[in-house]
């Protein structure tokens, strides 16, 4: 209710400035208590106990500044980043656009962040605070060896991460998505897994929604062969469905409601390719409990959101989890794990 009153003032600001104010507010406010680990929506994925399946996707907290504050808002897990070895400014501004008529966002941020060492100090300072923390890692735009960047990021961040998310699917770093090609992906994952070592956290791989069926099959096979913890399906899209907003022409990755059909289709494709043998994290266009439940029934063990918090406010995680409890009981499931892929 409160957010509906202040949203017009926030939307009067440039989108990136409004986002900066949101981060500042979360830093200033005392963090609430994270969700209890033994609640009705608790589930285990890749050996990790998640108190509920609703996570904050990477991109909101790029510099790992407010993970505990977000956990206090009711998210079952938070994924920070993308973080690169060296600090970089990202692409020129403006680079973040609200498409209000479409309940969507276009961004061409370009992995803007303060670099690995600064982020590592922040996550190290969390100490033994509870909560599932994913760290999303990327490569610098001007890197001469992007695979080496991912290996370096793995070594730096593995000690602090509940899981590592390898992001090779952002459309805003030129050439990055080429790492989804079969031979490049094998080399990349070999480097990451070697850098992680046997005792490191699970590795998740974040993929694009703009993939051909052969790409889905190859990525799934490689992910299973390498023993990855999960596939995050999917990042923003470079496609443009019918959009009503005047900023629809902006370049970058599209997220929010218009991404939902493509993200759901891509999730189903990965579920079919894997036969349920590797967990999937459903992302893209999730704004309600019904959206999350549909994604879980389609094969997602976990779900994430980001753009929806722009339109629905900081109470969205609790709204969705309350709705999921009702839907799970309504459909006769005793746990989230039982519902995964049951459509």
Put the structure in a nutshell.
The longest helix is centred in the middle third of the chain and has 15 residues.
What topology does this entry show?
Elements: H1 2-11, H2 15-28, E1 43-45, E2 48-50, E3 54-56, H3 67-72, E4 77-83, E5 96-99, E6 104-107, H4 116-125, E7 132-137, H5 146-157, E8 163-167, H6 182-196, E9 203-207, H7 213-225, E10 230-233, E11 253-256, H8 260-274, E12 280-283, H9 289-297, E13 302-305, H10 307-312, H11 316-330, H12 336-339
Parallel strand pairs: 3-4, 3-13, 4-7, 7-8, 8-9, 9-10, 10-12, 12-13
Antiparallel strand pairs: 1-2, 5-6, 6-11
What shape does the CA trace take?
Answer: globular
What Rg do the Cα atoms give?
18 Å
Main sheet, how many strands, which sense, barrel? Answer: 8 strands, parallel, barrel
Along the chain, the helix and strand elements come as HHEEEHEEEHEHEHEHEEHEHEHHH
Query: Could you give the distance between the termini?
Result: 33 Å
Write a structural description.
With 343 residues, the protein is an alpha/beta fold. It has helices at 2-11, 15-28, 67-72, 116-125, 146-157, 182-196, 213-225, 260-274, 289-297, 307-312, 316-330, 336-339, and strands at residues 43-45, 48-50, 54-56, 77-83, 96-99, 104-107, 132-137, 163-167, 203-207, 230-233, 253-256, 280-283, 302-305. The strands form three sheets. The chain has an eight-stranded parallel β-barrel with strand order 3-4-7-8-9-10-12-13, surrounded by four helices. The mean pLDDT is 96.
